[in-house]
Every structure is written in structure tokens, then in C-alpha cells.
Amino acid sequence: MTAGGRLWTRLGGDRRSLARYRRPAAAAAELEPALRSLSDPELRAHAEAWQRRHRGKVGADCEDLLPEAAALVRETSRRVLGKRLDDVQLMGGLALHDGAMVEMKTGEGKTLALVLPAVLGALAGRGVHVLTANDYLVERDAALTAPLYGALGLSCGTVLEVGDGKRPSAARRAAYAADVTYATPLALGYDLLRDRRANTPERTVQRGRYLALVDEADLLLFDDARKTVHLTRTDGEADPRYAKMTAVVGRLKPGLHYRVDQERKLVTLTDAGTERIEDLLGTSDLDRTADPRLLRILDAVLRAREVFRRGVDYVVVDGAVGVISGYSGRVSLTTDFGDGVTQAIAAKEGLEVPAETRRLCTLHVHWFLRGYQRLGAITGVAAETEAYRRVYGLETVRIPTGRPVLRVDRPVRFYPSDRARTEAVVAETAARRAKGQPVLLGTASIAQSEQMSAALTERGIPHHRLTPENHAEEAAAVARAGSVGAVTVVTRMVGRGVDIQLGGGADGGADAPDPADHDAVVRSGGLYVLAVDAYESRRLELHMRGRAGRRGDPGESAVFLSVTDPSLKPLFPAWQLKVLGLNPDPADSSMAFSRGVERALDIRTGQLAQQLCESVRYDEVMERQSDRLQRQRLVVFDGSGRRDWVARALDSTADQAVAAAKPSGGAKALRRALAQAYPVGLDVESLAALPPEQLSAAVRADVHSAYARREAEVTAPVLRDYERWIPLNLIDNFWADHLRALDDLSAATSLHTLTGADGLAHYQQEAERLFTGLLRRIERRAVFHLFRQEGPE
């Protein structure tokens, strides 16, 4: 558990922990007059002296520094940025420093709240990473805060996902060498994987994972937790079996041959389905005799057919499959669903099936973040508290708003049909716009955004539909959504990182809205947020509603639902939806209905959190194996234990040959096996004369003698060079093969689970067996090449 988790547990909840953060915030206020009396050069000198005085302090060592640090950051921000941090921002920063999941409502100033823990973390001199959702937010937030860090004597750098991979290593290394580095988890993950495959220290850029401060944390720690970063290469030609399997699956009947779990996006064969597939493929025992890759293709085709929906999960753009982010609504043509699903969708849609990519190495976002020594996170809505605690060891601290929330949340309205709901949305939007009130229409899918946009256009209502292709343009559009009479259609609001100011205004508040426009919007009732679908969880709904009523502004939110929405089926039984659809006046919905929706979404939120906790246990199998292998690679890479690794590989090769030959009991067979690995000095007669208990020791001695002769033959410097790059290349190449084997095992485990066996236990057991074989294979091949390599790499 992190320091924040221990603190929260010890203090017994939000109220008492908030008292802990209020005290240093109040003490900072007492120091403010003295700091204000300093000139700008004096304040900078004071800040630099403070940095020098406390360099090297970490975590709990900074406890007595909190009031002064908070006062310094507040006063420097006021002078450099013209923004004085509120007490709630200081409290949020202090909770982040303690290692908590911090909930601060939209508009309360999370971007600047992150500066205080970054300044405190930078004292350790080991680098602070401030992580956010996309490159636009990286550059925006770094540009905003860099002058503030500079005035405090700290450097600030950025690492981007797009384009930065081509920057020279020296430039990227300089970005990581900064006191504070802004980046996305994906950008840092890619660099970590590249560093792991480097053959020389000069090609590495990172300096370790000390402290991560995560903004937009619910997106990055929950929604994107199982997203993977991987280095790949195209693996040959497109596999024609996707098209063939699509035709085979088309002959199956849902319910009879397979069952669908929409929530988990899983499809499992029934016994009848297994028999039908065996008949169609001409095999007698599907999970024992079929090619493991064919089982994986079958699994992908079933899922593509039943649980991946066009316009919701993916789109087709210029003959290619584009992946829709389930939480931000953004489309990516460079993202792959993985596990062959993208290829299966292409086959389903009649598109050209792309070649699969071979993963050379991979890393889950949740595992990458858990690798930091210290972790703090902040978000506008932290609903999945149990998942944050169980997966990351973070306890949640909720910071109160600086001003009372004036937003009015209207009861949910239920309409009998999609058409009736759309007509009501358009009429409501027109009425609100007529009085100058800005309207934000929130949908749950791109398809629904297009539908609402078409309905508004037909009615002649000017509006802006966000097309999430350019983060900067999208941010500007969201920021203008608070303008007089503006109508904006947006898919989801998670991870946007953008404030909506009444009257409009540039993102980040660089250009404040015109006071007259601001006052006009206030008189109209503030921003009106209208959600037109049931979101997947309570958190997503709160994100949308929370855009209205920021920082004491007036605002209003409502939800219009159609009882025919597929999104309602997991939340309510069919009979209840039918009753809701009979209401003659949807505008007269009672709060009881709204509370019913809230309860259903709260239950769904808990289910999603539980699913994440269960799913990461599968991911951990691969990640732990990767870490174990990486530790071996590191001792070879840096030379600290390279000779010991080679000695163990020689011993292991000898032991493996002896163990393999024992069942046959023949000295000739043993010598043939040994000769495949190294120049054997023992003849058949000598091997046959050895007692069984002495055989391994004798063969070990012989292989070490042969290795000494090898060193004399090629010279020690040459052999030392072989000992570095041969194991490194083998580890990298064999790990890629192992990842494919784990993919095949995962697909086979899905079938294994149908028999009632414990799928996770089966997967763990088989994965460990595969990993043990991987380690032995790397050792054998390393010894083979060390004895036979001629010349440089």
C-alpha cells in the first residue's frame, strides 16, 4: 500500500484526512505576506536556496516542508502566471504528495494542483513524471507550468507519443533528465520497451521510474488500465483462415452453439457448438488436435461477430477498421484491438484482411504505472475506489469544492421510442438556445452523435459536432461550448482536460470570456448539459453532468432516455422498461426513476471495477514473467553478472542433456546430445563408466573446460563481446515467440473454462510451464552460439 493508502486508513476517512491537508494550507496562508514582500529576484533566490537546502529529501522527509513549499508555489504562480492557487488546490496537491487518488471536481484547477507535489518530488533529484491523456494536454500543461517551475529553479521537459520516437536519443534523454517531465503513459511505455531491447547503454533514454503524478486518472488508471504498449513488426502475409472461419461461424446459431457475454465482450462455445465446429472443420477433438492459432482465430471471429458493433466499437474508414475508444469516443486507425479481432472484423465487413503484427515486447498500462516507486493520481470523478485500492494501492481522498455547487440535476426522462426521444431533445435544445443558453449534448457513441447532428440540422439549429481527430481543435471547440446560444454535440467527456467557461474563452483560460457574454449566459441559467443515452457507469454520467455548474456557476443537467436503448438492457429488466415506456408525460418523471437509474449505474460501476481486478490477474502472469526475464537481461546488459549468467547457462545445458538422456540410459545418446551443444571432451566409454550420481558433475566440468579452450581460441575480449550480444538477441527474439504462445494459451484457456475448470489457475500453470521451457531454451541456444560464433555480430 502507498503512503497515501496508509495515511487514509490510519486517519479513518475523508473528514479526518482533509484536516491533515487543511493545516499546512492554512499555515501557507500565514507565510504569504512575508513572501509577497520580496521582490521578484529575491523570491527566486529564496526559492533556489530552499531547493538547495532540501535537496535529497523524499516522501515523509518533506513533512515539515509542506507549508513553506505550498506558500512558495502559490506566490510564484501568482506572479508568473497571474493565478493564485486556492486552498482546495493546495489540499489536492498535498494529498497527491501523500500518494492518494484525489477527486477534485471539474474546474477546480487540477493542472496547477499538480505543481506542488511535483516540486516536492523533484527534491529527490530522480525525476518526476506528470502523466496525462494525450499529446495536446502534455504540451498545453507543460507550456503553462514551465515558467512556474523555472521561477522555482526547476527544469521542465516533454515526451510525446507522436513524432518524438524519431528524435535523437540525446534529445529524449535530456527530456527525461529534466526535474519534471510531462508525458503520456504510452509515450513513456514505448521508451521503456525500446530501452529494454537496447544492446548498448548509449541507446537508452530513461533513468528509472521514481514518482508519477497522474492527471485524468480515471481514464488512465481505469479505462486504459489494460491498454497495451507494444513494439511490433508485420508478421508475413494476411492469414486466409480469418475469411474461412468467418464463413464457418456464420453457420452457427446463437444460444444453441455459443453464448454471448456482452459485458465482458466474450463468446463461449457450448458443447453443441464445439461439436458443430469439429464437424465443419473435420477434426475430432477441437481443443486437443486443432492448431492453437486456429483456436485464437475462432475466438476472434466469434467476438467480432457478436460483441463488436460498427459505429460503437469501430468504424470503417477508407476500407480499413478504425478503433473507437469506448471512453473518449476518439477514432484511431493506428490502434489494433489485438488478439486477431481487427482482422476478424475486417473479414466480417468484407474488407481486405490486414496482416497480423508480431509483438516483439508488450507492456500493460496498469503494470507500467505500478512500477513507479511512488504514485499519486487526480481526477474529476473517482467512482471506482475499490479498483484503485486493489490494483494500485491508492485510497481515495475527496477534496471539497472551493464554492458551493449550484447545478440543478433534473430527473431522468424516459421516452417510448428513439424517435420520441430525439424529437424531445431537438425541441428542448431549440427552446434553450432561443433564450441564449448554451447546450452541451452528450452521446455515448459516434453513431448517436451523427444521428443527433442530423436531427438538429433538419430542424435548422446551428451546432458543432465534435470530430475527435485533432485534440487541439477539439479542445478549442469544447472551450467554446459555453458561449451564448452555443449547441455542441460530444461523445463522452472523459479525458478531455478542458474547462467550459460561461461566455466562452480559450482553453486554459488564457483568454477570458467577454464579461457581457458571461453575464448573459449566467442570466440564461448557465450551461445546460443534456445526456441522450445511458452511460456505461455512474462515473461517465457524472463526468458529463459535471461540466455544468463549475466553480459556483449556475448550471443544469438532464438525461433523456429511450426505453428501446440497448444501453438500458443491462440496467433494467424488460418488464420495467416496458412500464417506463408507458408514462404519458416523460417530463413528469419522478426522482424515484432517477434514483433507480443511479442505483443501476452504481451497481454497474462496481461490476466493471470487479472485472478490472479480475482481468489484471491474467495480465500479471505475462508481466511478471517479463520482469523476471528482464532482470536476467539486465545482468547481461550492464555486465554486473554476465559471467555468472554464462556459467549458469553452461551448467543448465549440461544438466538438460543428462536429464534428457537418462530415460534411454545410453551413453551414446548422451554424447550425441552434448555434441550438439559444445565440443565434448568425454568419450562414450568415459560417460558409460560414470556412476549416475556423478554424471552431471562430470559433464558440467567438461563443458567448462571446453569453454576455457574456446576463450583461448578466440581471445578473451572477443568472447566477452559474444557473451553480451548473443544472450541479449536470444532473449529478445525468444520472448516474442513466447508472447505468441501466451496468446494461443489464452484462447485455449477460454475453451478450457467451458468445462468448468478454473481458467486462471489453468492459465497460470501452463504459462509457468511455457516460461520454464523458454529460459532453458535461451540457455541452450546461447551456449550453442557461444561455441560456434565466428567473427563480429
Automatic annotation (TrEMBL):
<dbReference type="Pfam" id="PF21090">
    <property type="entry name" value="P-loop_SecA"/>
</dbReference>
<dbReference type="InterPro" id="IPR001650">
    <property type="entry name" value="Helicase_C-like"/>
</dbReference>
<keyword id="KW-1278">Translocase</keyword>
<dbReference type="InterPro" id="IPR036266">
    <property type="entry name" value="SecA_Wing/Scaffold_sf"/>
</dbReference>
<keyword id="KW-0811">Translocation</keyword>
<keyword id="KW-0653">Protein transport</keyword>
<comment type="function">
    <text>Part of the Sec protein translocase complex. Interacts with the SecYEG preprotein conducting channel. Has a central role in coupling the hydrolysis of ATP to the transfer of proteins into and across the cell membrane, serving as an ATP-driven molecular motor driving the stepwise translocation of polypeptide chains across the membrane.</text>
</comment>
<dbReference type="Pfam" id="PF07517">
    <property type="entry name" value="SecA_DEAD"/>
</dbReference>
<feature type="binding site">
    <location>
        <begin position="107"/>
        <end position="111"/>
    </location>
    <ligand>
        <name>ATP</name>
    </ligand>
</feature>
<keyword id="KW-0813">Transport</keyword>
<dbReference type="InterPro" id="IPR014018">
    <property type="entry name" value="SecA_motor_DEAD"/>
</dbReference>
<feature type="binding site">
    <location>
        <position position="89"/>
    </location>
    <ligand>
        <name>ATP</name>
    </ligand>
</feature>
<keyword id="KW-0067">ATP-binding</keyword>
<dbReference type="InterPro" id="IPR011130">
    <property type="entry name" value="SecA_preprotein_X-link_dom"/>
</dbReference>
<protein>
    <recommendedName>
        <fullName>Protein translocase subunit SecA</fullName>
        <ecNumber>7.4.2.8</ecNumber>
    </recommendedName>
</protein>
<dbReference type="InterPro" id="IPR011116">
    <property type="entry name" value="SecA_Wing/Scaffold"/>
</dbReference>
<feature type="binding site">
    <location>
        <position position="499"/>
    </location>
    <ligand>
        <name>ATP</name>
    </ligand>
</feature>
<dbReference type="InterPro" id="IPR011115">
    <property type="entry name" value="SecA_DEAD"/>
</dbReference>
<keyword id="KW-1003">Cell membrane</keyword>
<dbReference type="InterPro" id="IPR027417">
    <property type="entry name" value="P-loop_NTPase"/>
</dbReference>
<comment type="subunit">
    <text>Monomer and homodimer. Part of the essential Sec protein translocation apparatus which comprises SecA, SecYEG and auxiliary proteins SecDF. Other proteins may also be involved.</text>
</comment>
<feature type="domain" description="Helicase ATP-binding">
    <location>
        <begin position="91"/>
        <end position="253"/>
    </location>
</feature>
<dbReference type="Pfam" id="PF01043">
    <property type="entry name" value="SecA_PP_bind"/>
</dbReference>
<keyword id="KW-0347">Helicase</keyword>
<keyword id="KW-0547">Nucleotide-binding</keyword>
<dbReference type="InterPro" id="IPR044722">
    <property type="entry name" value="SecA_SF2_C"/>
</dbReference>
<dbReference type="Pfam" id="PF07516">
    <property type="entry name" value="SecA_SW"/>
</dbReference>
<feature type="domain" description="Helicase C-terminal">
    <location>
        <begin position="421"/>
        <end position="595"/>
    </location>
</feature>
<dbReference type="InterPro" id="IPR036670">
    <property type="entry name" value="SecA_X-link_sf"/>
</dbReference>
<comment type="similarity">
    <text>Belongs to the SecA family.</text>
</comment>
<keyword id="KW-0378">Hydrolase</keyword>
<dbReference type="GO" id="GO:0004386">
    <property type="term" value="F:helicase activity"/>
</dbReference>
<dbReference type="InterPro" id="IPR014001">
    <property type="entry name" value="Helicase_ATP-bd"/>
</dbReference>
<dbReference type="InterPro" id="IPR000185">
    <property type="entry name" value="SecA"/>
</dbReference>
<keyword id="KW-0963">Cytoplasm</keyword>
<keyword id="KW-0472">Membrane</keyword>
<feature type="domain" description="SecA family profile">
    <location>
        <begin position="3"/>
        <end position="593"/>
    </location>
</feature>
